[in-house]
Each structure stands twice: as structure tokens, then as C-alpha cells.
Amino acid sequence: MAGHSKFSNIKHRKEAQDSKKSALMGQYVKLAQSAVKMGGSTDPKLNPKLAQVIESAKKSSLGVETIKKLLERMKNKEYKDIMIEVCGPANSIFLVMVDATNQVSARTEVKAAMRKHPVKVSNSPSSLHLFKQQGILYVTPDPERPNLDLEEIAIECEAEDVTKETNEEGQEVIKFLCDPARLSEVKTMLEGRSLTVENFYEQYEPLAPVTPSEAEQKEIDSITEKLENMDSYVEMHTNIEA
């Protein structure tokens, strides 16, 4: 799995319905984070983009409670995103991002969620070299400029690649890839060309995805569900084949 959803892709070999639900939930969490980052407020009354994300989540009956918990934590400046590594069956790796005050509390919460599973929990991720970190930006197409040379724009903004995709709502979006260290810089350059950046984030793509057996997949599904149900859960990336 390489992140979450339409803007951030969860890739578990689950049953189709469970996989879609998990992906959508991660999507809304990511969109809410970006909305707060771009709008500067955790109050949907003061942040129209955040209000739009919450309304979309309500329509999908997914992610609303997770978003509410996230917003409450984001009001507390002492909280920060912390990555915890979980190693599970079939050499599976879960890079779990949680909101916590420090590394110890983050690891403690993850270990508590995993107490019934045969996994190893580490607060110092040692498997990042097995993933490719990728900056991703989604741009809303401009109907008044349908013939934009996207490849030229990508080169000018120092993006690595650009493609057109269709999101979960059937809308066309433009996806730019870039060095994650330059994510904010590329966003600024795109906006400088009067393009609307709808969402941007960092994603971890597995370099060698693993394929669990059916029995291992059941254990992985249970692990995934418990991690996603943690109060401090933000997002997750795994090396599990879709």
C-alpha cells in the first residue's frame, strides 16, 4: 500500500468494499489536513475548503468522526505527526502516522492497539529505504484553458511527471509528481501560473510489494482495522500488494 485514497492511495488486498471504505477514509483525512494547512483554520465556519471536505465526507458516510478527532488534536499545538513502524506477517510493513505529543506516547498507543497481534512495533522506522517517497499535487483543470501544455508546465515548475486522472467523484484532476522535499515550492510555482492546487501531500510507494497468503491477509486486515481505529490515527502506508 502506498498511502491513502484518491489523493492518497491505501492499497490492501481486502475485499473490494472494505478496501474502498479504508481508502475513502484516508482520503478525507488527507483532504482535511490540506484544507487546514491551506485555509489556516480548524473551524469549518472560517475555512470554506474544510467545510467542503466535511460535507463530502458526510455524503459518503465515511471519515467524519475521524476528521473531527483530527481537528480537535490540531487545535492543540503540542501535538505533531509522528511515524511509527509496525512489522507484521508476510514481511508486511505498516508506516503509521499518528498525532501525539511525543514518540513515546505514540508508540505506546500503537502497541496497545497491537497487543493481540504478533507484530513488532518500533518508534524509529528502519524500513524507509524500502519505499520511495513521492510528492503529489492535484490540480483542478481550468475550463477556460483546456489546451494547457501540462508537460511544459511540469518542466517549468520542476515537477517529475504529470498525468490526468479521474477521481472517486468522476471528476477529472491533474496529478503532478515531484521531489517531496520540494512539495511546497512546486505548489507555489503552480499557483503562480494561476493553477488551483486542490490537494498536496507526501506519499510512500513500496519498492518491492509483498503478497500475503489468504490466512496472512486476514491477520493483516485485522491489524489494519485496529490501527485505523486509533484515536490518534492520521494515515498509513504499507508495502502490501494491492
Question: Mind sketching the topology for me?
Answer:
Blueprint (H helix, E strand, L loop, with lengths): L15 H24 L8 H13 L3 H12 L4 E8 L5 E8 L2 H11 L6 E3 L8 E10 L9 H7 L4 E6 L5 E7 L4 H9 L4 E11 L7 H15 L4 E6 L4
Antiparallel strand pairs: 1-2, 1-3, 2-8, 4-6, 4-7, 5-6
Structural summary, described in words:
The chain has 7 helices and 8 strands, in the order αααββαββαββαβαβ. 38% of the residues lie in helices and 24% in strands. The model is unreliable at 4-17 (pLDDT under 50). It has a domain at 130-205: Alpha-Beta Plaits. It has a 4-stranded antiparallel beta sheet. The protein has a 4-stranded antiparallel beta sheet with strand order 5-6-4-7. The radius of gyration is 18 Å and the shape is globular. Pfam families: TACO1_YebC_N, Transcrip_reg. It is found in: Mitochondrion. InterPro entries: Integrase-like_N, TACO1_YebC-like_2nd/3rd_dom, TACO1_YebC_N, Transcrip_reg_TACO1-like, Transcrip_reg_TACO1-like_dom3, YebC-like. It comes from Magallana gigas.
- Percent strand equals 15-25%
What's the number of helices?
7
Indicate the percent of residues in helices. Answer: 25-40%
The CATH H-level superfamily of the domain at 130-205 is: YebC, transcriptional regulation domain
Overall mean pLDDT stands at: 84
Order of helices and strands: HHHEEHEEHEEHEHE
CATH class of the domain at 130-205: Alpha Beta
Radius of gyration: 18 Å
Structural class: alpha+beta
Biggest pleated-sheet summary:
4 strands, antiparallel
Strand order of the largest sheet: 3-1-2-8
Low-confidence stretches: 4-17
Architecture of the domain at 130-205, according to CATH? Answer: 2-Layer Sandwich
Number of strands: 8
Write down the overall geometry: globular
**N→C terminal distance:** 7 Å
Family: Belongs to the TACO1 family.
Region (Disordered): 1-22
Main location: mitochondrion
Organism: Magallana gigas (Pacific oyster)
